[in-house]
Design brief:
It is a single chain. The chain contains three helices and eight strands. By secondary structure, the protein is α/β, with parallel strands linked by helices. It has one domain: Dinitrogenase iron-molybdenum cofactor biosynthesis domain (Nucleotidyltransferase, domain 5, 2-Layer Sandwich). The strands form two sheets. Strands 1, 2, 3, 4, 5 and 7 form a six-stranded mixed β-sheet that branches. Strand 1 and strand 2 form a beta hairpin.
Length: about 120
Amino acid sequence: MKIAMPIKEGKINPHFGTTREFAILQLEEGKVVDKKIISAEGLQHNHGGLAGLIKNEGVDVAIMGGIGGHMLEALQQMGVKVVNGAAGEVVEVAEAYAAGTLQTKPVVCGCGGHHGH
C-alpha cells in the first residue's frame, strides 16, 4: 500500500492545499519500508495538479489534517481514499493507519478562498 501525506517539518501539514512537499510511504505488512519526499512547489491550491501528482505516484490513500471540499473531490475522483483529521509524525501516522488505530477527526477547510494560506 502507498500512502501520501502533505508535510511540513516532518509532520503532517494541517492544511493540505498549502503544502509544498509530500511524503510518499510504501507499507508492507503494516510497516513503512520506503519513504520519499516529492515536491509540490507551484501546485498550491491547484486541485487537479495536486491530485494528479499523488495519483502518478501510485498512491492508494492520502492522509492529511484539513482539506477543502474541491481538493477532497479531486482526490476521490482519482480513486484515492482520503483520511483527514490526522496529525503527527508521518511514519507513526502511516503505521497507525495500517494497524487500524489511527485517531482522526473529519476536518474540511471552509476558508472559501486561497488568500493568506
